[in-house]
């Protein structure tokens, strides 16, 4: 399905949170539906806990990377990485979907504020913010490693991809991408993230 608009999504987080898999699922969902998609990842420290950014462009992209200040959505799996991504990719219309999770960087002397202070700072920027406790929902779904699918569910409930992808398209992609033993828990996590944001929006 050709589009005259490209939806630009930046996914930010740290190594070990499944950001690459998240990008693969969204990209696969688009491709299975005949929609053009570019997925590119940029790694900071090449280790678990290092910064990771995934660029997802769905629709009619002409290059793989989201331009600076060009994100329609920042899907942040960790709050410090949310701030980093907002500084580079956000504009006044960017929707921020943030996982309420703070992961301490491997810098022992770094002093951190409480999680809520970082979230409060983001809200004061005047951007639209949706908060999701993705780790808690993933745990309830049956596997904490499925927090990335909770975040896709939140994205789908936000309405940004309306007319492009539906929840059933993501479920098809999960079945395509995931090992068989993890399909059910990841679909459960996806639906829980979706339902959580539907409740928040109403």
Overview of this protein structure:
This protein has 202 residues and is an alpha/beta fold. It has a single domain, classed as Pyruvate-ferredoxin Oxidoreductase, domain 3 (3-Layer(aba) Sandwich), CATH 3.40.920.10. Strands 2-3-1-4-5-6 form a 6-stranded mixed sheet, with helices on both faces. The longest helix is centred in the C-terminal third of the chain and has 19 residues. It is globular and about 45 Å long. The chain starts with 6 loop residues before the first strand and ends with a helix.
Integer tally of domains: 1
Q: Which topology does CATH recognise?
A: Pyruvate-ferredoxin Oxidoreductase, domain 3
Termini Cα gap: 31 Å
The helix-and-strand class reads alpha/beta
CATH class: Alpha Beta
Shape: globular
The CATH architecture is 3-Layer(aba) Sandwich
How big a fraction of the residues is strand?
15-25%
